[in-house]
Each structure stands twice: as structure tokens, then as C-alpha cells.
Design goal:
One of its GO terms (molecular function) is transmembrane transporter activity. It comes from Corynebacterium uropygiale. It is a multi-pass membrane protein. Keywords: Cell membrane, Membrane, Transmembrane, Transmembrane helix. The chain is mainly α. It has a single domain, classed as Orthogonal Bundle (ABC transporter involved in vitamin B12 uptake, BtuC), CATH 1.10.3470. Helices cover about 75% and strands about 0% of the residues. It contains 14 helices and four strands. The strands form two sheets. Strands 1-4 form a two-stranded antiparallel ribbon. The protein has a two-stranded antiparallel sheet with strand order 2-3. The longest helix is centred in the C-terminal third of the chain and has 27 residues. The protein starts with a helix and ends with a helix. The model has no long low-confidence stretch (mean pLDDT about 90).
Length: about 325
């Protein structure tokens, strides 16, 4: 084999390793378009986008965490708490609509800061710190709401309306993706995240303020989670106490499927976006094919397992 042919083969292999989720998404779309003629209809494509939006927004925040080699199990509960604080402070406390919107975002930001402080200064493992926060946030949501939905103001509900042909949740998803891309690829904070995920000790010895960066990372994750919670609240015009249940697993899956490594140091907004779309397309396609929701959970689990296995293979290939 000539040097040029060998180089081309290696380039194709590297491209496939780095874009496996995109290839899988394209193949899946083709298969579903053949299996269900209504799959590629404009209405259904918009529906897929709306279904992907909430998980994608949470997953963009999760990307920051996973890039640093951490994990955040609290995002689903924090999303519910952010939406509930915004709705409850308007419907029960009578606060102005714009202030309730700010309160929702600040709730997520504060939750993320608490998680970051626990990890950076309390030396708690990220798994334990965010697992505890998940329980606390879910409990606070139930205490505040007393287990009942709370009506939300127009200052929140506009996130669930349409802007021309596009629903606002899709626009919010795209904006969140652009912010994630900008932070990771165009800021010192983003480069520091990759450095910490690549080698924590080396990052610390090089003079990076690791503790402050970790607090910022989890604060961003909480902020994005609250953003997603407000979008969920807007779609229903009310905050639900059990909203966001299980979304942390979908968000982690989207990030990993999109090419991020659970060991840190690799990941990006584009991959996360593709991963979230892939999950939404799978669920939408299985619904169109009248596949039981029980089987859908099995399929999603197999996809996650395959994504993690693919990550292991990719790491071995890179190491070689």
C-alpha cells in the first residue's frame, strides 16, 4: 500500500471515529424516511426539533462538565426547580413577571455554584455532590409546589410560542448551542476546561485557577438546566413538580454519543447537538412505527452502551 493511500485510509478512519454520531444520524434518517413516509414531513421535523430542544439545552451545559472530566446528575431536578421557582413566585407570591424569569435563572446558577463549591473546596466526588444536589433540588421543588403544578407568567410562556415558522424551543436550543460553542472554542475559560479534563494535575501545576474554573463549569451547567426548565414550563404554561425526571441521563447520553469522552478532555457543542438530535430521532421514529415505549427504553439503553463502547475504541485508537 502506497504512502498516499495509507494516509487517505487513516484520514477516513479518523473522520469516522470523530463523526460516528453524525453518520449514524444520517443513516437513521434515511432508514426512517423509507420506513415511514410521514417522517420527513415539515410538521414532524419541527416536532423532532421541539422534542430535542430541552434535552439539548441541558446537554450543552453538561458538555462543559464532561469536558472537565466531571459529571452532573442534578440537572433534571435543577431544571424542575428553576421552572417551579419562576412559576410559583408569580402565581403565589405576586412578583413581577420579569423578576420571576430572573429568579428561575438565578436558581439554576446558585445550584450550580453550590455543586461547584462542594467539588472544588469540599473535595466531594462530582458523582456524590451532584447526586445529593439532585435529591435536594427535587425535594425543594415538591416542598415549594406541595406536589401541585403552578401557573407561569407570560414573561416565561413566550419561550414556548412560535417565531414565524419556528417554535421558540428550537430557537432557544440553537442559541444555547452557539453559546456553548463560543465558550468552548473562543474563550480562555473553554480552553481551561479542556486542559483540566486532559490532565488535572498538569493544569494545576501550570497555574490555572482550577477551583474557580470548576465552580464556573458547574454554575454554567446549573444555568443551562434552569434555562431548559423554563422552556419546559413555557411549553405547558405551568411548572410541573416532576418535570425533568430522567433528563440527566438523556443529557449525558447526548454528550457521549456526540463524541465527548467521559474521562474528559474532549467534546464540543456540535457533537452534543448531533447526539441530542439522534436521541430525539430515535424516539420519534419508534413512535411513528408504533413501537412500545418499553422497547424504546431498551433501544435507547443499547445506543448509550454502544456510544460508550465506541468511546473506548476511539481512545485506544488515539493512544496507538
Amino acid at each position: 500500500m502506497s504512502t498516499r493511500t495509507r494516509t487517505r485510509t487513516v484520514s477516513v478512519k479518523e473522520w469516522m471515529l470523530n463523526n460516528g454520531a453524525l453518520v449514524g444520524l444520517i443513516v437513521l434518517i434515511i432508514v426512517l424516511a423509507i420506513a415511514s413516509p410521514s417522517f420527513l414531513s415539515f410538521t414532524n421535523i419541527i416536532n423532532v426539533g421541539v422534542q430535542a430542544a430541552t434535552v439539548a439545552i441541558i446537554a450543552f451545559g453538561m458538555t462543559f462538565v464532561i469536558v472537565t472530566g466531571g459529571i452532573d446528575l442534578s440537572v433534571g431536578a435543577v431544571a424542575a426547580l428553576g421552572g417551579m421557582v419562576a412559576a410559583y413566585s408569580w402565581s403565589e407570591m405576586g412578583l413581577p413577571g420579569w423578576l420571576t424569569l430572573i429568579a428561575g435563572f438565578l436558581t439554576g446558577l446558585l445550584a450550580g455554584v453550590i455543586a461547584g463549591l462542594s467539588i472544588a473546596y469540599g473535595k466531594l466526588p462530582a458523582f456524590i455532590a451532584t447526586l445529593a444536589l439532585m435529591s435536594i433540588a427535587r425535594g425543594l421543588t415538591l416542598v415549594i409546589s406541595e406536589g401541585s403544578p403552578a401557573a407561569s407568567p407570560e414573561s416565561v410562556n413566550w419561550m414556548g410560542t412560535d417565531l414565524g415558522p419556528l417554535p421558540m424551543p428550537i430557537i432557544m436550543m440553537l442559541v444555547a448551542g452557539l453559546i456553548c460553542w463560543f465558550v468552548l472554542s473562543r474563550t480562555v475559560l473553554g480552553r481551561s476546561m479542556y486542559a483540566i479534563g486532559g490532565n488535572l494535575d498538569a493544569a494545576r501545576l501550570s497555574g490555572l485557577p482550577v477551583r474557580r474554573i470548576l465552580i464556573s463549569v458547574y454554575a454554567l451547567s446549573g444555568l443551562f438546566a434552569a434555562w431548559a426548565g423554563l422552556v419546559m414550563t413555557a411549553r405547558l404554561s405551568s411548572a410541573q413538580p416532576n418535570a425533568g425526571t430522567g433528563y440527566e441521563l438523556d443529557a449525558i447520553a447526548a454528550v457521549v454519543i456526540g463524541g465527548a469522552s467521559l474521562s474528559g478532555g474532549r467534546g464540543g457543542a456540535w457533537g452534543t447537538f448531533v447526539g441530542a438530535l439522534l436521541l430525539a430521532v430515535i424516539r420519534n421514529g419508534l413512535n411513528l412505527l408504533n413501537v412500545s415505549s418499553f422497547w424504546q427504553q431498551i433501544v435507547i439503553g443499547l445506543v448509550i452502551a454502544a456510544a460508550v463502547g465506541f468511546d473506548v475504541i476511539r481512545n485506544k485508537t488515539i493512544a496507538q
